[in-house]
Write a structure and sequence with these properties.
With about 150 residues, the chain is of the alpha/beta class. Helices cover about 40% and strands about 10% of the residues. It has a single domain, classed as NAD(P)-binding Rossmann-like Domain (Rossmann fold), CATH 3.40.50.720.
């Protein structure tokens, strides 16, 4: 990219970069990606290379099959999955939502955008409390009580 004097670096963070999550390691990594990407944007600005992050919320992908059954039930009970009451679209997005954001950030349409984080989360981070975190806490509590 430096020899060409142009380029766009896009990293994938998460809403976990903005809110506390159930996994310290995951949340810390996503916070670090924001800092790394902003630093890259600053360092590479003279080469006309932009760097941005995308922070997805819940995305309906095959990884969702690995979410424990009780956790999914709690998410459904909290109206988080598959219908998010407080999201703009009232649903969990598909991978195409992230792909479209990446296409925008890679295109000349975002030529003046660098060092930014684009949340693609259906307004997830705007809701009071976090139903995803609350559902996780309920599933952990239920798992512990099942062992007693």
């Amino acid at each position: 990219m430096k020899p060409m004097q142009t380029g766009s670096i896009i990293t994938t963070a998460s809403v976990a970069a903005h809110i506390a999550g159930p996994s310290m390691a995951y949340t810390t990594l996503k916070h670090a990606l924001l800092g790394l990407t902003r630093y890259a944007a600053w360092e590479l600005r003279d080469f006309n290379i932009r760097a941005n992050t995308i922070s997805p919320g819940a995305i309906c992908t095959p990884i969702m099959k690995d979410v424990p059954k009780f956790f999914l039930e709690q998410m459904q009970a909290s109206s988080f999955f598959p219908k998010m009451k407080t999201s703009v679209s009232h649903k969990i997005a598909g991978p195409d939502s992230i792909a479209n954001a990446a296409l925008f950030l890679a295109s000349d349409d975002s030529a003046y955008v660098s060092g930014e984080d684009l949340a693609v989360d259906g307004s997830h981070m705007l809701q009071p409390g976090d139903p995803l975190i609350n559902a996780y806490k309920l599933s952990v509590a239920a798992s512990k009580s099942a062992l007693i």
